Amino acid sequence: MKRRIVFLSAILLSVSIASAQQDGPMGPPPDGQPPMDANGMPAPPPGGKPGPGGGGQQFKQASGVLSFTSDATVTGKTVTSETSDKSPIYVSSGTLNISNCVLTNKGDASSTDDASFYGVNAVMCAQPAQDSKATCVINSRNNHVSGTGLGSNGIFAYGNATINSENDVIEQSGGNTRGIMASGGGTINAKHATVVTKGHSSSCVATDRGGGIINVTGGTFTCYGGNSAGIYTTGEINAKDATFISNGGEGIVVEGTNYANLKDCHVISKFDKWGVLLYQSFSGDAEEGDKATLSIRGGDLTYEGTKTGMFYNTNNRDSLYLEDVTLTNTSDTLINCKKGNWGNNDSARRGGTLSVETNMQILEGLVCADVNSQVSLNMKNASIFIGAFNPDNTAKQATLLMSNDSYWVLTKNSYVNGALRLNTDNIRSNGHNIYYNSANNSAFAGRTIDLPGGGKMMPF
């Protein structure tokens, strides 16, 4: 809140704000291509997606070194598996209370699809038997969980299973080994976890086919491998007061009609690709539809790359809500909606559609969309935008709505071919113009209006 007031005061005191964005080279817009592997071929979808290995088409029952079908308590044990597809701990029914144990899985999954979809080969797995109406619960506390084998996910809940984790340390070094994962409708509640993943496609917190619900409170989550996100959701992931650091992928990925809700979290994406991805891969792992949502309230989000932008939306209709979040972005682009290469030729051509709503929020950078894509920005409650909107006039549709107490400091000419609503007294143009579509904005009656700072608002 204090940062927003300082910015607002500076705007009111001066009609000309020096900006590195205004004079420096902007560079060409990103091409929307997915990252390439070492051989120059398209890399797999990011963060948490299964690698090769077959399987996944039919339910596969998990198995364990220690298997539980009724209530039990385990304390202070060391359990290791070196056998493919065998978890150190597996619960199919009843409640397991487990604490102060060292759990390690060195075995590789025979199918990384089965590992991702059903929890096979996870270090700690809660998975009811197929067609079983049983429920299973794991209460895990102060355990050390380690997966070194391929597809040895840390803690995994599938179907009618719940894992309650508190103060667990999860260290993953194998490929396709996420830290905390739910699929097929499983539920995980994690408090004060420490999660580190080092392998490729090993997001810290993830859901996969069939979705699931993961609630995170506190904790630190760090991933180092390529295509590994701090959060990857094909279901619902809620996080509060947690830190997510991705060195090889996105801070957050929302795929398909799914949700991620963050409150007072710290999120950092250090990889030079894009900071946050809102998309649909059409792999079948995430439901298709028009309700995907990312909500961030408080805390901070940092993107340390320069490519594409902080938020990248493609192949899906998504909504983004930002409230009093400190955004630190080394790219000149804040939001980029563009077609991508995921899906078939028809689906990839449809581009992205992103609706952004802000509340008491400072935004800095370019908001861009290509000819296949649509973007709308709805600024509320003294939000501030320092940047340019659809500066290349390429968007299929670009809509901008500002409350009477919100401000816009222009850094380039901007084009609004959809609806435009603003208070011209709250514009600081710095000599730049706002171009609007008179057919969609009859209230302006095709007029050219002088803006504070020497620019104009005019039809095009």
Give a verbal description of the structure.
The protein has a 15-stranded parallel sheet with strand order 1-4-7-10-13-16-19-22-25-28-31-33-35-37-40. It has 4 helices and 43 strands. It starts with a helix and ends with a strand. Mean pLDDT is 88; it is low at 12-53. The chain has one domain (2-459). Helix content is 6%, strand content 43%. The radius of gyration is 24 Å and the shape is elongated. The chain has 460 residues and is mainly beta.
* Main sheet summary: 15 strands, parallel
Can you count the helices? 4
Choose one word for the global shape. Answer: elongated
Return the domain count. Answer: 1
Counting DSSP E segments of at least 2 residues, the number of strands comes to 43
Poorly predicted sequence stretches spanning 5 or more consecutive residues? 12-53
What is the structural class? mainly beta
Short description:
The protein has 460 residues and is mainly β. 6% of the residues lie in helices and 43% in strands. The model is unreliable at 12-53 (pLDDT under 50).
Write the layout of secondary structure elements.
Layout (H helix, E strand, L loop, with lengths): L1 H12 L6 H4 L39 E6 L3 E4 L2 E4 L4 E6 L2 E6 L2 E4 L6 H7 L5 E3 L9 E6 L2 E4 L7 E4 L2 E6 L2 E4 L7 E4 L2 E6 L2 E4 L7 E3 L4 E6 L2 E4 L7 E3 L2 E5 L2 E4 L5 E4 L3 E5 L2 E4 L6 E4 L12 E6 L2 E4 L7 E4 L2 E7 L2 E4 L3 E5 L7 H4 L4 E7 L2 E8 L4 E7 L3 E6 L7 E6 L4 E4 L3 E3 L3 E2 L5 E2 L5 E3 L12 E2 L5 E4 L1
Parallel strand pairs: 1-4, 2-5, 3-6, 4-7, 5-8, 6-9, 7-10, 8-11, 9-12, 10-13, 11-14, 12-15, 13-16, 14-17, 15-18, 16-19, 17-20, 18-21, 19-22, 20-23, 21-24, 22-25, 23-26, 24-27, 25-28, 26-29, 27-30, 28-31, 29-32, 31-33, 32-34, 33-35, 34-36, 35-37, 36-39, 37-40, 38-41, 41-43
Antiparallel strand pairs: 42-43
